[in-house]
Specification:
By secondary structure, this protein is mostly helical. The protein is built from 10 helices and no strands.
Length: 201
Amino acid sequence: MKYQDQAILIKDLINGEENSFIYLVDQYNQRLYGYAMTLTNDQARSQDIIQNVFLRTWEKRKKIKITTSLQNYLFKAVHNEFVNQYKKNRSTMILEQKYFDALEKAANSYDEVSFGKAIEKIMEEIQNLPPKCREVFVLSRKEGLTNIEISNYLNISTKTVEAHVTKGFSILRKKLGDKIETILFLAFGMKYYNNAIKNSL
C-alpha cells in the first residue's frame, strides 16, 4: 500500500492530499484514543482531545517537522492537547491540578523521540511479564486498584499482591532503568497517579 512508507504519508499530508489525512485518522485513531483515555479516564474528553489533535495536524500540516516516527509525534500531540485543556480549565480541583503539574513536569524530561519510544517500550515490557505478575501489575498500575481491592478481586492475599507488584517493578526496572516510575506515570496517567496516592495512605 502507498502509505506503508511513512515518508510518503508525511509528504502527502504536507501537500494537502486528503487521502493521506483519511489514512492517518484510520490508522491512528484507536491508538491515540486509548492513550488519551489513560490520561483523562473520560470518553468524551478523550474523543475531544484526539479530534483536536487530528484537526490541528491537518491545519498546520505545512509546518510539520517529524524527526522520528509519526506515531511518536501524535502521542506527544495528544499529551500536549491534554495539558492545554487543563490549563484552560480554571475550575480544576486541587488534586487534579497537582496531577497536571506532575504530568507536565514528567513529560518535559522527554523530547518527541524518547517520549514515544518510552510509551511503546513500557507497553511491550509489561506484556512480557509472567502472566500472574502481569495481571496484578496491570490492575495496580494501569487500572488504579489498591492492593486490598486486587486481593479481593483475585482472591489472593495482600502479601501476594505486594510480591507480584514488587516483582513487576524489579523486572521493568532492569529493562527500563530508574525512570520506570516516570514512564509508567506518562503511560497510565490519572489512574496511576491516584493509585500511588491511595497506596501511600
